[in-house]
Amino acid sequence: MNNNDKLCYPGSSVVDFDRSLPLSTTFSKTLELQTAVQNYKGIELEDYVREQVLRFVIQLNVLACYLGEVCSYSSCPQMTATKDVLYLCAAHEVAQECCAIDYISHCLDGATSLLTSEDVISHNNSGKVQEVNLQPFRVIMRRLYRLFAHAYFHHIDTFQRFEQQTELFHHFCSFATAFNLISPSDMLVPVDFASVKGSLLEGGQI
Q1: Which residues form a coiled coil (predicted)?
Q2: Is 13 contained in some domain?
Q3: pLDDT tens for residues 13-53?
């Protein structure tokens, strides 16, 4: 694959990502995000965010394949970002440590299961839509972000190769910021990749 080519993953084109409101791959035009925030309200906002987060999961499976070439139990027995940040896997009855590649697999499988479940949308027992609730998506996006963080701090060559081909990290962060889905303190990877910013979180993070 030529380094200048883009991976043709689902949702990578402007049209495919959202037919009703085309968004650029990197959200380079701030107006497009502002339009998205203004156009989607209530349950429509939940549906919209769920669709986009699910597309991120699909796209991150490609990154997982890339990481499978360099990330193993022996090389990464824990899911970490910096040396001070250890992530616990929530796929178990009690959150526990997993090797990085298993954590990544569990995270993607869990996110897919949640996003394809009707329970993630705010309905009560009568089926009536309740107040909009983006919290489930914040949990998912925070955990998905950790895949980028691990790749950046431990497999930088793979991270850079993937980002050059997809620009997914820029896309992901712009979307998360626009819809307030990830706290700045959880975003450890610098967007320009020049220096680490954000507060380093200590201890096991779930």
Answers
A1: none
A2: no
A3: 322 333 333 333 444 445 566 666 677 766 678 888 888 89
Alpha carbon distance, N-terminus to C-terminus of the chain:
36
- For residue 110, tell me if it sits in a domain: yes
CA atoms of 76 and 90, how far apart (whole Å):
18
Phi, psi dihedral angles at 151 (to 5 degrees): -60, -40
Task: Please give the structure tokens belonging to residue 103.
Answer: 């954590």
On average, the pLDDT of the chain sits at 76
CATH at 189: 1.20.140.30
Q: Is 140 within the bounds of a domain? A: yes
Task: Output the six-digit token pair for 13.
Answer: 């084109």
Cβ contacts of residue 108 below 8 Å, gap of 6+? 57, 60, 61, 64, 144, 147
Tens digit of pLDDT for each residue in 152-177?
999 999 999 998 888 889 888 888 98
Residue ranges making up the domain that contains 159: 25-205
What is the domain count for the chain?
Answer: 1
pTM over the 0.90 mark:
no
Helix, coil or strand: residue 133? coil
